[in-house]
Amino acid sequence: MESIKDRIANLARAMNKKPEMDGEYIDYPTLRKQYEQQASQDIQALQQRTKQERIETIHGRSDLNPKWTFANLIEDSDDVIEAISIAKSFIAAHDDPSWRQSGSHMMLFYGDYGRGKSHIAGAMAHQLIEQYEISVLYRQLSTLLEMRYFSYDYSAKDNIGEKFREANQELLDVDLLILDEVCVNETVLKKNTQSWLGNLLRQRLVNKKNCILITNHNLQDLEQAVGRYCFESIKEYDTYKVRFSGPSRRTAVSQEDDPHSAPQGYQPNQIK
């Protein structure tokens, strides 16, 4: 008949543990402590793997450009430096549960093309996903409006109406919604579009969901473009307005080396 010592030794061998230390018998409390420590390490490793899988899933659904990170930003002007400071303060505020529960927060990035608005918004989103597992959705408003328009085609065979309803629900549910190109090339949105966007923002406000809006308009033109109802929805948020006024970061398209370029007297789409 096996002794207690033999049983413990057999159990230890079955679990790939060593019941002896320096040739001495290990008592049960010590052995139990070792097993508990190993179990704790295994649980922590499993939790870390599970967390990483959740983060990867959020990244996959966010539709963010993977190159939009703080590491890739060039701090070459005062507006970018200030915007990064505000962005990092916004991220750090998520450490405070009372701040997160206090209401809905909105960052409004406005300025001309190529100033880094989308990049900084994306960098914020990537960090919020990594640190806090915040669900994020990046969408261009014009793409959503096209989908919304085609959803009224009841003769369509591609289930566009159902797809838009699913997309609209996702816009309501996600923790952080980034709407880019708001009113791009639009002086005034149609009335029903203004109402739809205003209602979307108000529903997110009620549910304490945060937003980042990115536009090329100044604030006065944006109010005219989205309409008063929608702009009042924006003002209801705890809003952080960030103006981008520095130089464009996009590479200029030079005509010097292009043999097919137009004559110098003609400059299409020139902004006055």
TrEMBL record:
Residues 248-272 are annotated as: Disordered. GO terms for biological process: DNA replication. InterPro entries: IstB_ATP-bd, P-loop_NTPase. It comes from Alteromonas halophila. SUPFAM superfamilies: P-loop containing nucleoside triphosphate hydrolases. GO terms for molecular function: ATP binding. Residues 108-227 form the IstB-like ATP-binding domain. This is DNA replication protein. Transmembrane segments: none annotated.
